[in-house]
User: Which sequence fits this backbone?
C-alpha cells in the first residue's frame, strides 16, 4: 500500500548502480548513525516518562470523572476517540509524509504539537478548581481526539525516521535501550511525583500532572534538533486515495482465510478496551479507594508491561505467536474477573482494597498483545504485502473501540447499583475474550504451513494499490 511502505534501509553499503548523490547520502547516514541513535534513545526515554503521567486507563478517566461526576457514557468515549485519532488522520496524510523531505521536522512538529492540547488540559484543571462549566467535559473530549490525531502522525514519523536513520541490525538496540531505560525511569518518576500531586484536594491536583506531561513532549520536540538527517527527494508518483486503501483492506479480509480468522480473534480480544476506563471507576465507586491509589495503578500497569514483554517475546521466538496470543487471551480474560472478585471482597480484611493493583498488573499485557498481533500478521505474507496487511489489521483494531460509549452506557443503567452493572459489563467482555481464545485454535501457525487445516488463498489475486 503506497504511503505505508517502509523506507528502505538507507544505510546499506553503496552499490555499483548507485548514483554519486546516493552514495554520498548513504555515507552521511552511516557517519551520523551513532549520534542519531543516541538522540533517538533520549527521545524515547523522555517520551515514555511524559506518557506515563497521562495513562489512559487511570489518570485520564479519573480527570474526566472529576469534571462530569462519573458519567459512564462520557467516560466510554475515551477509547473510541483515541483509536479514531490514531487510525484515520495517519491514513489521510501517509502519502504526504512520504513526500516530506525531512521526517525529523515532522517528528519535531508533532512532538511540540502534542504539548499544546496537554497544556490546555492543565489550564482546565486549574480553572475547574473554582467552578466546572458545562462546556468543559466536551472541550476535553475534543482536545483528547486532537491529541491522539497528532499522536498517530507522531507514531508514523517515528517509524519512518527509524527506518531512514538506523540500520536494520541496530534498530533492536534502539528498541532495547528505549524499552528498558524508558519504563524504569518513568516508573521512578511516577512513584516520586504522582503520589504527592494526587494527594492534593480538588480538581487542581491534575494541574501539575498534565503540565509535566506537556513539558515532556516539548522537551521531546527540542531533542529532535540534535538529529542529523539528509533530506529526501519527493516521489513523483501520485498519492493513493484513502478510499482505495480501504478497498484494499476489504480485499485482504475477504480474500485471505488465514487473515480473516486472525482478525476475528483480534476484534474479540481487543474488546478489553471497552472497559479500560472503568477499572479505576470500579475501585473508586465500590472499594472507595482514593486518588493516591492512581499512582500505584499506573506503576503496576507499567511493571506488567516490563514483565510480560520479555516473556512473550521469548515464547514467541520458540513456539510461535499463535500460542502467545492464546496465553494472552487467558491473562486478559482474567483481568475483569479478578477486578470483580476483588471488588466483591471488600470485607473486614479489606483484601480487595489491598490487592486491586494486581488488576492493572494484568492489564499490562494489553500493549504487549498489540505487538504480538503485528508480529503474527507479518508472518502471514511476504515483505511486499506487509504494509497492506498491517494497515488492514489496524482497521480491525478500530472496530471494538466504536462500541465503547455503549459499554459506558451499561454502567449508567445501574447507577444506583454499580457493582451489578460492572458484573454485567465486565463479565460480558471476559466472555468475548474467552471466545477469542477458543478461536485461536482455528488460526494458522504460519511457521507450520504444512499442517494447515484449510488451503491457503492465492495472495497474488488480492487487490491492492500498485507499488510506486
Assistant:
Amino acid at each position: 500500500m503506497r504511503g505505508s511502505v517502509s523506507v528502505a534501509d538507507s544505510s546499506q553499503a553503496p552499490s555499483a548502480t548507485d548514483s554519486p548523490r546516493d552514495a554520498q547520502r548513504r555515507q552521511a547516514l552511516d557517519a551520523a548513525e551513532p549520534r542519531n541513535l543516541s538522540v533517538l534513545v533520549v527521545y524515547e526515554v523522555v517520551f515514555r516518562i511524559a506518557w506515563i503521567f497521562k495513562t489512559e486507563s487511570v489518570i485520564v478517566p479519573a480527570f474526566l470523572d472529576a469534571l462530569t461526576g462519573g458519567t459512564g457514557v462520557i467516560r466510554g468515549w475515551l477509547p473510541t476517540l483515541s483509536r479514531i485519532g490514531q487510525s484515520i488522520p495517519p491514513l489521510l496524510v501517509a502519502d504526504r509524509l512520504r513526500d516530506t523531505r525531512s521526517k525529523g521536522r515532522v517528528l519535531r512538529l508533532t512532538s511540540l504539537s502534542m504539548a499544546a492540547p496537554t497544556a490546555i488540559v492543565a489550564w482546565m484543571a486549574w480553572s475547574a478548581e473554582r467552578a466546572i462549566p458545562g462546556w468543559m467535559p466536551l472541550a476535553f473530549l475534543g482536545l483528547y481526539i486532537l491529541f491522539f490525531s497528532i499522536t498517530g502522525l507522531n507514531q508514523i514519523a517515528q517509524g519512518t525516521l527509524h527506518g531512514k536513520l538506523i540500520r536494520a541490525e541496530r534498530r533492536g538496540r534502539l528498541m532495547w535501550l528505549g524499552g528498558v531505560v524508558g519504563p524504569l525511569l518513568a516508573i521512578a518518576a511516577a512513584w516520586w511525583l504522582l503520589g504527592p500531586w494526587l494527594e492534593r484536594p480538588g480538581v487542581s491536583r491534575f494541574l501539575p500532572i498534565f503540565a509535566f506531561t506537556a513539558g515532556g513532549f516539548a522537551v521531546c520536540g527540542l531533542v529532535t534538533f540534535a538529529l542529523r538527517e539528509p533530506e529526501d527527494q519527493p516521489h513523483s508518483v501520485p498519492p493513493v486515495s484513502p478510499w482505495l486503501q480501504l478497498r484494499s483492506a476489504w480485499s485482504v479480509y475477504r480474500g485471505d482465510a488465514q487473515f480473516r480468522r486472525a482478525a476475528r480473534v483480534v476484534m474479540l480480544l481487543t474488546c478489553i478496551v471497552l472497559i479500560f476506563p472503568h477499572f479505576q471507576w470500579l475501585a473508586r465507586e465500590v472499594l472507595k479507594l482514593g486518588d493516591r491509589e492512581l499512582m500505584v495503578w499506573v506503576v503496576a500497569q507499567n511493571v506488567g508491561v516490563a514483565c510480560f514483554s520479555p516473556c512473550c517475546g521469548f515464547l514467541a521466538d520458540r513456539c510461535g505467536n499463535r500460542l502467545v496470543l492464546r496465553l494472552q487471551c487467558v491473562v486478559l480474560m482474567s483481568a475483569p474477573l479478578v477486578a470483580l472478585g476483588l471488588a466483591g471482597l471488600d470485607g473486614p480484611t479489606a483484601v480487595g482494597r489491598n490487592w486491586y493493583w494486581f488488576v492493572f498488573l494484568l492489564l499490562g499485557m494489553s500493549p504487549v498483545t498489540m505487538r504480538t498481533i503485528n508480529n503474527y500478521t507479518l508472518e502471514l505474507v511476504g515483505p511486499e504485502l506487509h504494509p497492506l496487511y498491517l494497515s488492514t489489521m489496524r482497521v480491525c483494531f478500530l472496530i471494538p473501540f466504536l462500541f465503547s460509549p455503549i459499554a459506558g452506557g451499561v454502567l449508567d443503567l445501574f447507577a444506583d447499583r454499580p457493582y451489578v452493572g460492572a458484573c454485567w459489563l465486565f463479565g460480558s467482555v471476559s466472555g468475548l475474550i474467552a471466545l477469542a481464545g477458543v478461536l485461536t485454535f482455528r488460526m494458522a501457525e504460519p511457521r507450520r504451513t504444512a499442517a494447515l487445516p484449510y488451503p491457503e488463498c492465492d495472495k497474488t489475486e488480492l487487490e491492492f494499490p500498485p507499488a510506486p
Notes: The radius of gyration is 23 Å. Confidence is low (pLDDT under 50) at residues 1-17, 450-468. DSSP finds 18 helices and no strands in the chain. Residues 26 and 37 are 16 Å apart (CA to CA).
